[in-house]
Amino acid sequence: MSSIAATEPEDGLGRFTDVRAGREQQRDGVREWVRGGARGRGGRLVVEGEPGAGRTALVRGALAEAAALGCRVRYGAADPFTAGLPLRAALDCLHPEGPGRAAVVALLREAREAAYPGGAWLAATDLLVSGVEAWCARGPLLLVLDDLHWADPATLLLWQRLARAADRLPLLLAATRRPLPRRPEVEQLCAELGAGPGGRTVRLEPLTGAETAEVLRGMLGAEPGPRLLRAAARAGGNPRLLRELTTQWAHLIEVTGGHPAPVGGGGADRDDGGGRAVEPVVELVVPEGELPEPPASLPRGLGYLSRPAYTTLRHAALLGPAFTPRELALVQARPAREVLAELEEPLLAGLLEDTGERLRFRQPALRRALYAELPRAARSALHQDAARALAEAGHDPARTAGQLLAGGALDRWAVHWLADSAQSLIAEAPAAAAELLERAVARADCADREALEGSLADAALLLRRPESAELLVTLHGRATDPGARAVLAFKLVSALMIQGDMARSLAVTEDALEEGVPSPALRLRLEACRVLALAELGCAAQAHTLAVPVVARAARLDDPLCGAEAHHAMAFALFHLGRGRESLRHVAEGIAWARRSPVANDVRLLLLANQAEGHLRFDEPEPVAAALREARELALATRSTGRLVVTEALLAGFRYRLGDWDAALDGLARADGLPVSDGWLPVVVHGLRALVLGHRDECAAAGAELVRLPPDAFTAAAARRYSGYVLLARALLAERAGRPADAVRELLPMLAQSPDEAMTYERPWALSELVRLALECGDTATARAAVAACGRTAGALAEYPGPALALLRCRGLFAQDPQLLARVRERAELAGGPLVLGQAWEDLAVARAWHGDLAAARSALTRAVAAYEGPGARWDTARADARLRSLGVRRGSRAARRRPANGWEALTPAEVTVALLVAQGRSNPEIARTLFLSTRTVQTHVSHILAKLQVRSRAAVAAQAAARRPGPEPGPGPGP
To answer: What single DSSP character describes residue 905?
Structure first.
């Protein structure tokens, strides 16, 4: 790992190539304007943009271009300190020194001393105009006046005269301005400069995400990583602020990895161990939350705001990234019309933007800097006052909670408000509710404490946090009312199941049912819990027997929640009995029940996750994508953090299977770090991430993920079901390190016979890997045992195609039978994803080589590598090359099989998918929703697509896609 620092721009007048990236369209337009002037065509130009947008860089590039073309050039800049000196800005531009300046200064001095100065001022202006005309008589001239908004009135009048002369002279007249301060005379002059055939106005808008990525590449000399791109959004698309933040973070940005570079792509200075160039990637080495506060100097650049506008903007920063004018008026205890009047300046300056419902700070870093200006004690008091004002006005509890969270210790009023508002707050913002309730419980008196503890348990249960179970044990022990005890028992059972403690949850369920449950609906739900616990504990037949009457009684009750939970219990029992299709039918019925009432949303989310997993076992991507899409949308709409994390983790597994590993890693990053207690989540997050990184030959990073697993990671049965990711990753790293015997030992747990062995995800394919590795070590006994174990699993899961495919591979590998392995490859072509397909081709290549058919082996090896290249499985490519090289088989030249640098063939599979959606006219947010990606990831893909296709617009992408696919444009496929 090496650190990297931002490069500083050179001083002086740069050529257009020095203009920061992201302004290519404006740069090209100004270049064409300059070339027209060099040919003798006069013109006028106004460059508008906020402070830091790059106005000066653009016009200085124009000056350099004009000078290179033989034009005379002059540059000057107005400033607020000389705005009261007549013609000062014009003189600085036209005559920074010399006799010309002296002559004009003499006339101005005469005007200052004269009783009637108009004549002397007019003479000074005429002298300057005649000088410009004389220059134009000798050749084209470019005049640039920077920061026109500060220019003195006499300079503005001069520029107006010159603008009218530009149509008849070889004169290019340019000026730059920013939105504030607003002066009527400046507005009028800019309208004249930009009007007519000879006028042009260039507006420098905030950088898009793709342009931001391009700027970072130019500054840092390498591709920015996703974390750095997310952090860069704090600049709000302002180039100067982006540079300041990147410079501040320079010691936290390092070269952390890379990906294969296309031939001729440039920038590659390392290889991946297989002789292929790797483009360096720069990334933040700390989480975004650990970045330092923005520079305290940032608000000093807001000196153009009036004092009232600045004060109001700073108070708005207290309300968070977005706010309504009414909220700000309430907090300031002022009429809304006054607040709106003072917000006009920040809106005009682009510091705030109107999103329709709220005003939003466009530059989050600037908001943080404004916020930090207030002393901490003052901030705390203001937050508490704001919370009370919002609550008394009846605003959303989440807004009040946000102010209380930022306000420090809770006072008595805040504790009482929380006790009264806890349930509505939990429904709207469970994470904020849990944090506030934890603070409140410590400060509450006896009258409020029990209610607050109960609400805290509800919030923790909804968030799937580990502390919910112990809180509920305490509350259940205190309760005396039978109805209250039954409700708390059900919540406790749910909490214990989330933690994977099925034995304890069964005991609590049995005790509650024996004690008596007044509510028929609650009794049925507890009986459904008993079915779940028994099935998980290996008593699936007994669980199924008990589930039959539960489903029948739920139909009679006609309660959506009971119906959903009853069918969930039946589906779970059938799943453990190996009756997958029947299980999925009950899952679908449970979802139909849950859709009838929002009360059943949590069960609906659980059932959608089960539906996705069930169809994934049947290799049916369309219903998997549909279920996960519905689950993600529902989790976001209901703010169910716990279920959202589950959905993201399952979606990552789905993406891994499809070979979209970048999207899988993005999903795992979103799932990681949230305080949920599902015991299987760390196994999925760290195991799957390690497996992807291992296949990509990023061994150190993969090993670091495995180290993060807790020692008791596989205690819960649910966690053991996902152990395949971890064991495969460990075996891969051992094989990569040249220790195949250790790789075999890592996979030996897959041979264990247990009641739930067939339920372990990835087990069949892991057993086929064990056969391969054991045979390479000469351990035929272990290989034979793995074939037998895979046969048992395939028999127990006869409905599913995956175990049958793995068993066929086991038998083909054990016999080194090309015909069997060719059948594996045929099935993998239909379902299995690029990794499985690549391994099938690799196995077939080895078998053909063993049988002496080297030409067919070479062909199969080439196909294997082609499959591996899609997801970036660099280790698998290196392993395949090494295995076949030892058998006398080599591929053709490396250059022949690399992805081209440009054109459609240069696109990765993920980029092709995005390009086809772009061609359909989809926006980036629409593509993000369709593919379950972040908008920023889509923006990065689009940037890469434009660069590789060497086009500048989405329309051009659509044209290339249409050229490759004649006829109607196909849909995006089954989804993610």
So the answer is: G
